[in-house]
Amino acid sequence: MTSTGARRAAAVPAIDRADSRAVFMSHWYVAGEEQGRAVLDEIADAWEAAERPEDVLSFSCYLSTGGDDVTVMTYAQCAGPDAYRPFVRSLPSAAARVEPVEYRLFRSVPLAPESGPAASVVIASFDVDGRERQEHIVSSVTANIEASPRSDQAGLIASHFHLSLDGTRVINYAEWTSDEEHIAFLEGATRHRSLRLATRTPGVRPIGFTRYHLYRAIDG
Questions:
Q1: What is the pLDDT of residue 57?
Q2: Residue 196 to residues 42, 49, 51, 173, Cα–Cα distance (Å)
């Protein structure tokens, strides 16, 4: 599977855009890449055919890379939290109506914005016990990223940490120049230090990560 779709610069969402004040994410397993593409096309087609609220700034669809377990993900940026759920509930596609989790972008760590749009997106998830634990683990991981040599994180464009409103999840939306750079990073010291921080912090449980390519994107 290639990352051609993710390289279309105009389609890649600006995760740290200042007017995005609410983020809605959904992800679920599908029976293979063919079904994943069909599901995402169904969702994106429904979005493109509908009159969308002004508060919806962008909507992006992603397909996971490699492996037997294929995951699809949707990521919506909104100027406010009120319009998104009523809108998606009105869509004719059942897949488009999957209940999302609402997040707020808490902190972004840009490392190489000059590298251009991400060709690979890695979603790392943490199960946490409340708001204080959410902020604590983000502070710990970002301090590790910022203190680590750039050579240990070659290809990492930026990390964007999202907190779920219910206090149970932290998502690191990491932008990479390629799948290969992320695969190399997995064996490095920076990644292992971050993993130790998460596993040894009370009230924080790392869930794992999924690597995605952008499949389709729609501006608001």
A1: 95
A2: 40, 46, 46, 19
